[in-house]
Amino acid sequence: MEPKKQYYENVAKTIIKNLEKRQMEGYYCEDGQSAVKKVLELMPKGSSIGWGGSMTLTELGVFDAIQNGDYEIFNRDLAKTKEEQKKVYSQIVGADYFLMSSNAITLDGELVNIDGRGNRVSFLCFGPENVIVVVGMNKIATNAQDGMNRVRNIAAPPNTVRLNKKTPCATTGMCGDCYSPDCICCQLVVTRKSATPGRIKVILVGEELGY
Fold first, then answer.
1. Separation in Å, CA 60 to CA 37, 126, 197
2. Is 139:104 a contact under the CB 8 Å cutoff?
3. What are the φ/ψ torsions at residue 127 (nearest 5 degrees)?
4. Closest by Cα among 118, 136, 126 to 94
5. Where are the alpha helices (DSSP H) in the chain?
6. On the chain, which terminus has fewer CB atoms closer than 10 Å, C or N?
């Protein structure tokens, strides 16, 4: 096994062990194909599913796999009006599964996320029966503070460019600690423990995924 892959596997074992003490389940998949397979294995046929915006899930093809499966899908991307959005979010809060990535994950098993409107992190905290978090090994941080720095200076800037936001980081490539109307860093959530044992399931993928 090449050194980087071995490193990913070693670190994943450490993180998974630390997730256990936080009442979260952890899994390691060497590549994207096995990660998609694991996501589908965790969700029984007929389950209701919602998700948050995620380049990681998009890159892996998770959404395509779900669309081709036997699931009840609450697709927020199809909501065009405020009323439709309200309806789909009310469905997602009661879903069997919510899919997302994490902006960072610490070696000690904490999830670090920054959100704009907060719908993604709100479902991580409360609502759906299960939350599946798929994370590329490029998002590892040594601790929560390092995770926050990663999110603000590595994850957020390219996301603002992708979303055509008018923020300082979209121009300079680094966090300006702004209060811009387009700011996507409105909610900062560190998940240090799952209140319900096993509700949050983290799939670590031995690839660089997302931002």
1. 11, 25, 27
2. yes
3. 120, -95
4. 126
5. 3-21, 32-42, 55-60, 62-67, 82-92, 119-125, 144-150, 156-162, 168-172
6. N
What pLDDT digit, counting tens, does each position of 39-98 carry? Answer: 999 999 999 999 998 999 999 999 999 988 899 999 988 888 989 989 999 999 999 999
With contact defined as beta carbons under 8 Å apart, do 100 and 124 qualify?
yes
Reported as a single tens digit per residue, the pLDDT across 7-41 is 999 999 999 999 999 999 999 999 999 999 999 99
pTM for the full predicted model: 0.95
Please identify which residue in the block is written with the tokens 């996507």: 184
The number of beta carbons lying within 10 Å of the beta carbon of residue 86 is: 11
Long-range contacts of 14-22 (CB under 8 A, 24+ apart): 14/107, 15/105, 15/106, 15/107, 15/108, 15/109, 15/140, 15/202, 15/204, 16/202, 16/204, 17/109, 18/107, 18/108, 18/109, 19/109, 19/202, 20/109, 21/109, 22/109, 22/110, 22/192, 22/193, 22/194
Nearest residue to 18 via CA among 135, 90, 105:
105
Write the burial class of residue 81 (CB in 10 Å: 0-12 exposed, 13-18 middle, 19+ buried): exposed
Q: State CA 111 to chain mean position distance.
A: 9
The Cα–Cα gap between 134 and 93 comes to 19
User: What's the length of the chain?
Assistant: 211
Q: Using only C-alpha atoms, what is the Rg of the chain?
A: 17
